[in-house]
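#help-structures

NK: newbie question. if I give both the sequence and a SMILES, will the prediction place the ligand too? trying with pyridoxal-5'-phosphate
OV: yes, paste both and it writes out the complex. here, I ran yours:
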Amino acid sequence: MKTVPFTKEEIEEAAKTYPTPFYVYDEAGIRKNAQAVKEAFSWNPGFREYFAVKATPNPFLINILREYGCGTDCSSMTELMLSNAMDIPGEEIMFSSNDTPAEDFAYAAKIGATINLDDFTHISFLEETLGYIPKTISFRYNPGGFYSLSNGIMDNPGDSKYGLTKEQLMRGYKILKKKGVERFGLHAFLVSNTTGNDYYPTLAGTLFELAVEIKQETGVELSFINLSGGVGIPYKPEDHPADIKVVGEGVRKVYEKILVPAGLDNVAIYTEMGRFMMGPYGYLVTKAIHEKHIYKEYIGVDACAVNLMRPAMYGAYHHITVLGKEKKRKDHEYDIVGSLCENNDKFAVDRMLPKIDMGDYLAIHDAGAHGFAMGYNYNGKLKCAELLMKEDHSFEMIRRAETPKDYFATFDGFDIYKKLTKE
Ligand SMILES: *Cc1c(COP(=O)(O)O)cnc(C)c1O
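OV: that's the protein plus ligand as structure tokens.
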């Protein structure tokens, strides 16, 4: 059963200060999980989780992860800027981007972030941009074809835009070695939102065997292998969470089987998890404001797809708890909808829930990663606030809601907000 870490009364109290909709992040949950990740890989002295900033780009939340040794993984200039402003040292910043603009590479190099190249041609692009090649470089690998795990989950790297082929990798390492690179890395992200404990150990096996081949063929001994993101979370009540301790042990076994005998026993393991670090610990809290009875039963809430677009975009399931009615029978079938002029603006379709009354608060689960971050402003909708529920259950606002002034701020030469407020 999926539960929420707060009560209806706590949310009602918070809503007096911060109008709905808002995000709530559960600090206790974030900390417990970050500690478990740290322990699961503690067998590897060089281990570091580089939190994928794009999942939840909030410095207050990232600062909590910093206490557990996490760095950041950035996909863009602004994410690099955020990491730099947080005084994160360059060695603790990964830059895993693709189709990268020259100025992003320049900024990453300036702050000393580790650059993870997505393509063979980026070697010369980087060198032309910077006038040199940094001493540490990583490559992103794409094995092509299909990639399957023992539980049947599969993805199609052959159809994905990311990474270098194996042949390009081998040539790339040789070139970088000639150019004086001293620390080499290997990265791959092959399957997203995997359930079960199988993905990282399977991927590690693939990358560790490749590391041995790289050593044999090019003489390059990798310093780090980056398993990237992709560890999933249980969105549905019947899904099972990954046991990160079992995952870490699984990686250790293949490390000892493949890398250690090949003399590669100093390789640091890196991860770039986003979803697993934050997903389950963020909730979108919204209020029921309309009920509509036509050919189906609709509940209209004050949040919409701009606050959380995964259901609209992927048809993703997000569990919903009607606060204060946790123990009531789920004997009503509803579509839970937002106000966008888009019929896919539905948080849930044909969902069995307890009877919802106007003014009820709904908590939409597992919105802590790729939730707020994917927000947009369609229909002139504004982004909502983010709140941190601390371990003592007090609430702190860690990002204010957007205002119309923010929304109108980029029309240089036509100050809409000033005009309206003068009248
Ligand atoms: C999105 C992304 C991640 C994080 O993925 P999760 O599924 O959230 O763990 C990590 N690395 C790269 C390069 C990504 O693009």
